[in-house]
Amino acid sequence: MSKEAVAALPQRAREVVEYRKSGLSLNHVQGCPLGCAFCIRHTYDLWDADRPRALMSDGEAVEQLVRHRYFRPHDTPLQVFNRATDPFLPGVRGHLFAVLEDLDRRGLTNPVLVITRGFVSVRDCERLNSLANVKVTLLFTYSGIDDKRIEPHPSGTAVRSMRLATSYGPRRYRTIFYWRPLVPGLNDTTAHLARAVGLSRWADATVFTGLFYRDEIADYYRANGLPEPYEETARRKIVPETLEERILAAFARRPPDAPPLFRKTSCAVSYAHGLPDYNGHYGIDELCDICPAAQLDRCAQAHRVPTALQLLEAAGALPEATGMRVIEVTERAAEVEGLPSEQPRYYLQHRLGFQVHDAAHPHRRRRHGRAAIGWESTNG
Q: Which residues lie within the region annotated Disordered (predicted)?
């Protein structure tokens, strides 16, 4: 894109490096033709951008990433093209490998998450496997939604790609069955759950999660006459309590040696690489109660509860966090206030390997980090 075209983009679209919960995210290629109605691009004013276009060269983008104040070599988890396009689209794949190979040549060992619904080939697997340093995880997004008005792109594409990528071997990269978004009445029948259980064997681990139903997405649903999944919107993903119970029951019937199920992305990614959870969820018992014993041991050995002083010292590196105040630190999490956004909170979590919660947006017991919708039996 020309400099003039880039300057005309919405402000958030121009910010090609952004911290999201599962990693520092690089998005210098924007635009996607897949047309999923629930896409997060609605919230970035990018929905109408259906043709992938690069805002800058891949080399410039990687430099912005590694020079960013949030980036820590060998430590910060990274994501590539998870906000505004699919990394395995024909016009995006070359940019993806240029970024991965650049990071790898620098000798960086950071975790790198690549989320896709797209077609992954044998040649792609070969190139991914040739990366000697970065810890790549492919997360194959699968919903099983049959309504083409909501998800026009067939879920079968991700299934075939996941089977191929997982069967390729030996391999250094890891694969995740990324089961999302789960929406009551849309893709949660007994048949849907049974199919997902069967597909989960084709990955190193499974993560399930719900729908981001923000105001912008709800507006799009109404304007296009789509069935509205919920009567209200929420800033967090929606996973109703009864849906989670049914999912856990369905997966409980798998063979003992089946790949495990997780509630959180970072837990699954870390498990797949034999590492403790980089988001520091250990201590949140209601998240860990489905984790394999070996993974719990890894996380327990790495678990360190920081002091308030250590939190303040870590925040001191960030100009935007100078007003942060530590309210309380427990075995579960640190509670803070005074942060201007989620991004510095994610930085602190990853730097300390420990949960950091904002008092303005509390994490309630059992529905940790999820919307209140469908959890009326819990407080808050």
A: 360-380
Q: What residues does 225 pair with on adjacent strands?
A: none
**Are 322 and 270 in the same domain?**
no
What residues does 358 pair with on adjacent strands?
A: 336
Task: Please report which helix (H) or strand (E) contains residue 4, including its range.
Answer: helix 3-7
At a CB cut-off of 8 Å and minimum separation 6, what does 3 contact? none
- Same domain, residue pair 229 and 328: no
DSSP type of residue 238: B
Q: What size, in residues, is the chain?
A: 380
Computed over every residue of the chain, the mean pLDDT equals 94
Q: Looking at the domain assignment, is residue 291 inside a domain?
A: no
Cα 159 to chain center, whole Å?
18
Both tokens of 16, joined, read: 């090609």
What CA–CA distance (Å, rounded) separates 347 from 251? Answer: 33
Q: Residue 11 belongs to what domain range? A: 3-277
The CA distance from 179 to 84, in Å, is 19
Residue 174 pLDDT greater than 60, yes or no: yes
Structure token digits, residue 85: 């396009």
Whether residue 339 is predicted with pLDDT greater than 50 in this model: the reply is yes
Looking at the fold, whether 175 and 236 belong to one and the same domain comes out as yes
| Same domain membership, residue 215 and residue 317 | no
Residue 205 lies in a domain: yes
Fill in the DSSP letter of residue 34: S
- Cβ atoms of 196 and 257 within 8 Å: the answer is no
Let me know: does 9 contact 37? Beta carbons within 8 Å: no
- What's the angle, vertex CA 183, arms to CA 177 and CA 186, rounded to 5? 105
And the tokens for 248?
């856990």
Task: Report pLDDT digits (tens) over 368-379.
Answer: 878 999 986 544
pLDDT per residue over 178-214, tens digit each?
999 999 999 999 999 999 999 999 999 999 999 999 9
Torsion of CA 297, 289, 279, 259, to 10 degrees: 80
β-pair partners for 176: 139, 205
In a domain, 299, yes or no: no
Q: Could you tell me if 52 and 148 lie in one domain?
A: yes
Domain assignment of residue 102, yes or no: yes
Number of other residues whose CB lies within 10 A of the CB of residue 104: 18
Best CA proximity match to 107, nearest among 139, 79, 66, 68: 66
In contact, 114 and 156? CB cutoff 8 Å:
no
